[in-house]
Amino acid sequence: MRIGILTGGGDCPGLNAVIRAVVRKGILHYEDEFTGFIEGWRGVLENKTTKLDLNAVSDILLRGGTILRTSRTNPAKREGGLAQCIETFNKNKLDALITLGGDDTQSVSKKLFEQGVKVVGVPKTIDNDLSGTDLCFGFDTAVSIATEAIDRVHTTAEAHNRIIVVEVMGRDSGWIALHSGIASGADIILVPEKPFDLVEVAETLKQSRQQGKLFGIVVVAEGAKVAGGAVDLGAAKDEFGHVRLGGIGNLLAQEIEKRAGLETRSVILGHIQRGGTPTAFDRMLATRYGVGAIDMVHRGEFGRLAALRGQEIVSVLLQEALQENRKVPPELLAMADSLQEKHGKAVLSNR
Ligand code: F6P
After folding, report:
1. pLDDT for 237 beyond 80
2. Is any atom of ligand 1 closer than 6 Å to the C-beta of 283?
3. What is the pLDDT of residues 124-167, one digit of tens each?
4. pLDDT of 255-293, one tens digit each?
5. Where are the domains of the chain?
6. Which of the listed CATH numbers 3.40.190.170, 3.20.20.70, 1.10.10.10, 3.40.50.450 matches domain 2-137+278-310?
7. Is 10 in the pocket of ligand 1 (CB under 6 A)?
8. How far is CA 140 from CA 13, 104, 220, 325, in A?
């Protein structure tokens, strides 16, 4: 078969491992030929391609980013964009298309499938909140990076008797914040699932200081909201309508210093969490997704997504990736709280 591949949306460690697995199994087992589209849907719109053979995917398993590069281009927002994608598909005489991406990328996959393109999706988001699958590759790497960073911040906070706020990724869900926050023993973890009260944050840290703890670590997801209103930093939006986040950590640090009278610093981890080599766990998971996707193509399971359910890679409808984001469940938030001393809660809310 002749198969196209693209990577869309934000990158994450493990994309190359998926591409490698698709291409290796496709060539070695099914005698497929592969065309890579450069920079996600932009490459399809502009017919920017590259040949993907065994040589092209050699030595990429441990590389972060994506050899195909990526963009947040949305063909559905361009006049005649979807028709243009179909024209490119036909021009390249493709039998199928494998799309690696999150809900935005897969919303375009779904539209094209409805117009007859044979698409298989692979779920991808560093935020780990796609509803179709239990776990996204790249998340383990991001949590490891964030945890290591918080561990480092911990010792300097302790040396200076300071509060340090660490902002991690997580637009609509607090998976990275919760996992790295628990793994590093943070005092407070703030997630988008629970708008938080600034008074309560300051009060908790103050009480902790009065009880003898001379420093504190606060982990905040970039999408966490202050009760009574989101923090609007006036940021630009992308083609899928998402506001560029980042900055709540700085605001929070200022408020803590003002309200609790404790010296506070902030660190924004940002794209460091998406960069560099994937963990062994993510390389394995990404490889399983890649093999799952190419097998689906050959079973003719189109309009579907390779997904992890429990320990198994299965195929689910593309639609499932587009449903509401998978939130951190209350039980996990409660678990973080249960580790705190009587004065506080780890996950604060505007109760
Ligand atoms: O959607 C994943 C994500 O990493 C979010 O956590 C973050 O807000 C956003 O992408 C950053 O996007 P960009 O790489 O376009 O700045």
Report:
1. no
2. no
3. 999 999 999 999 999 999 999 999 999 999 999 999 999 999 99
4. 999 999 999 999 999 999 999 999 999 999 999 999 999
5. 2-137+278-310, 140-275+329-338
6. 3.40.50.450
7. yes
8. 9, 22, 18, 18
The reported pLDDT for the residue numbered 350 is: 42
Closest CA to 278 of 289, 268, 267: 289
Please name the residue whose Cα sits nearest to atom 13 of ligand 1: 10
Q: How far is the CA of 9 from the centre of ligand 1 (A)?
A: 8
The answer to whether 1 and 295 are in contact (CB under 8 A) is no
Q: According to DSSP H, which parts of 34-123 are helical?
A: 41-45, 81-91, 103-114
The CA 165 to ligand 1 mean position distance, Å, reads 20
Q: Give the residue, by CA position, lying nearest to ligand 1 atom 12.
A: 10
Q: Give the distance (Å) from ligand 1 centre to CA of residue 344.
A: 31
- In sequence order, what DSSP letters do the residues of 197-239 get, joined into one string? -HHHHHHHHHHHHHTT---EEEEEETT--BTTB-------B-T
Where does 38-106 show beta strands of DSSP type E? 49-52, 96-101
Closest ligand 1 atom number to CA of residue 246: 8
Cα three-residue angle 109-113-119, rounded to 5 degrees: 65
Residue 32 Cα distances to 29, 51, 293, 331, angstroms: 8, 12, 13, 45
CA–CA gap between residue 202 and residue 197 (Å, rounded): 9
Cβ(32)–Cβ(127) below 8 Å: no
Same fold across 2-137+278-310 and 140-275+329-338: yes
Q: pLDDT tens-digit profile of 44-103? A: 999 999 999 999 999 999 999 999 999 999 999 999 999 999 999 999 999 999 999 999
Enter the pTM of the model. Answer: 0.94
Ligand 1 center from residue 238 Cα (angstroms): 10
Residue nearest to atom 3 of ligand 1 (CA): 10
Catalytic positions, written as ranges: 127
Domain 140-275+329-338, CATH: 3.40.50.460
